Amino acid sequence: ARRDADGWDGDRLRIYEDSEKRSAVLWMLVWDTEHDAEEAARAAERVHAQLPSAARARAEVVRRGRAVLVLRDLPEALRATLRARFSATGLAAEAASGRTKPSAAD
Prior knowledge:
Blueprint: H1 2-5, E1 8-17, E2 23-31, H2 34-49, H3 53-56, E3 59-64, E4 67-72, H4 76-88, H5 91-96
Antiparallel strand pairs: 1-2, 2-4, 3-4
């Protein structure tokens, strides 16, 4: 596990729960290099491949540069919105800048 964390540069994890106590996960990670991010994305995809088919249908991994976005148990419409925001509105750029690291204010 320690080797898998080599190159990790910070992350943000959000877990949401609906009124029926079902959880959904949004996890954005930043890596030191694009190569590290590629390795992390492949590892997350291997984990997703082991999920039951219904869960796999609601999960995905997106990589942009040094940033990786992991989505689980989210409806497709919401995943599409998050993918677009991650790619277009600077979330990936913010992640690449290192601003995803927890600060003293967090």
